[in-house]
Design a protein that fits this description.
Layout: E1 2-8, H1 14-27, E2 32-36, E3 42-51, H2 55-58, E4 69-73, E5 78-79, H3 86-94, E6 104-109, H4 113-116, H5 119-135, E7 141-142, E8 154-160, E9 165-172, H6 197-207, H7 210-216, E10 222-226, H8 232-238, E11 243-247, H9 254-258, E12 262-265, E13 278-283, H10 289-301, E14 305-313, H11 319-337, E15 341-346, E16 354-361
Parallel strand pairs: 6-7, 6-8, 10-11, 10-13, 11-12, 13-14
Antiparallel strand pairs: 1-3, 1-4, 2-3, 5-9, 8-9, 14-16, 15-16
This protein binds S-adenosylmethionine.
S-adenosylmethionine binds next to helix 8.
């Protein structure tokens, strides 16, 4: 029933996204092939044989590293005439089984250069399409930023490649990014010392449920920030009232130090060990990704931190191979250590040449 899936990604990461989708399909015993173009900001994975709706879960957003958002396509790309784009799209959706009928809608394009040029058009196209759907007894709400959508909701994705070609697909809210197009539009706090503060905020929102955030980020918690200067990540803890040890030889933002919640330690982040176990270890040191992964494993083994978030910088050409190898090694080592864990890697919207990793207890 579902013939392909479309994953969006950061422009420039199409190869990684395609390799990951191919690997996931192979793991699931599915065959198919990826189709993508450099800098397009998306990849379509075609299945040789249609998959059923359990594909939503199998290719869920949280299990994919490089996909910003993911939705499924009952058919390939559609050609739509300039004179009437609505009718063919509407007829197509009307032919879908009841189980795919959407309650939300997003008209979108990629984050690549050609996709960005279509964003105003996509916005204006939502109105006539929504009204045509409503007249056909398929009422949909627009999926907009900051809107809470129930986990069982289905979202219609109308994804324009250009003015004449469109992919029409569907996602299940529970298994897709919490943000439309996978783009976390977070407000930069004017008193934060660096823009990278948004990376940690996005990581908290991506990796922890609302309940987990309420508990794991309560003011009584303790954190260690390795490679903390000037303090963008430390800021995320301080704003929540969490005492933080900031480990770095550089200079910390003065306002953060004035909070009285930060202890600045000018020592090597690879040698530092907390006197007592802490709730969080976060690490944004620019270092070889394998060294950072080993460091995290040591902290996990010694139970020095209950949860960790760290970045793996990927300046190398073979980014997918590097990430894949590190994930495999980490999973093997964690298994040997025996404590139930959750390891998640994600190329966040605010990440550039890096991925963000969460390691914490199994929830
Ligand atoms: C990308 S910056 C961190 C930015 C910070 N997360 C923020 O939001 O402001 C990397 C930092 O890691 C620090 N660093 C690199 N190697 C380190 C080491 N071995 N020990 C401690 N800090 C280190 C650098 O001094 C630098 O300040």
């Amino acid at each position: 029933m579902l013939r392909a899936l479309l994953a969006t990604c950061r422009p420039g990461f199409e190869k990684e996204c395609a390799a990951e989708l191919s690997e996931r399909a192979t793991q699931l015993g599915l065959t198919g092939y990826p189709q993508t173009k450099p800098e397009s900001g998306f990849c379509v994975f075609h299945f040789n044989e249609s998959v059923s709706e359990n594909g939503f879960e199998k290719f869920q957003w949280s299990a994919l590293i490089f996909a910003r958002s993911v939705f499924f396509l009952p058919a390939g790309v559609m050609q739509v005439p300039e004179t009437d784009r609505v009718s063919p799209i509407l007829e197509h959706i009307k032919s879908w089984p009841k189980s795919l009928k959407p309650n939300f809608m997003l008209v979108e394009s990629s984050d690549g250069e050609s996709g960005r040029e279509l964003s105003a058009f996509c916005k204006s196209f939502s109105k006539p399409l929504r009204s045509a759907l409503s007249k056909s007894q398929i009422p949909v709400e627009l999926w907009e930023d900051s809107q809470a959508v129930e986990p069982q909701a289905r979202c219609l994705h109308v994804f324009f490649v250009d003015y004449a070609q469109v992919y029409v697909g569907v996602s299940l809210r529970r298994y897709n990014s919490p943000w439309p197009r996978g783009i976390a539009r977070l407000r930069f706090p004017s008193d934060a010392p660096s823009r990278s503060t948004l990376k940690l905020e996005e990581a908290f929102l991506s990796f922890l449920s609302e309940d987990e955030r309420a508990s794991a980020l309560a003011p009584s918690r303790r954190a260690v920030d390795l490679g903390a200067c000037p303090g963008g990540w430390t800021y995320q803890f301080v704003r929540r009232g969490i005492r933080t040890s900031a480990v770095d030889n550089g200079s910390m933002d003065e306002r953060l130090m004035d909070s009285g919640l930060v202890e600045h330690l000018r020592v090597d982040g690879f040698k530092f060990a907390p006197q007592r176990p802490v709730d969080w270890m976060v690490c944004d040191m620019v270092e070889q990704p394998k060294r950072i992964a080993e460091l995290a494993l040591r902290w996990w083994q010694s139970q020095s931190a209950r949860r960790m978030i760290f970045n793996l910088k990927l300046p190398m050409k073979k980014r997918w191979a590097e990430v894949q190898e590190i994930r495999l090694v980490m999973e093997e080592e964690l298994k040997k250590m025996g404590r139930p864990h959750r390891l998640v890697m994600k190329h966040l919207y605010h990440d550039r040449e890096e991925v963000t990793v969460y390691l914490g207890p199994h929830s």
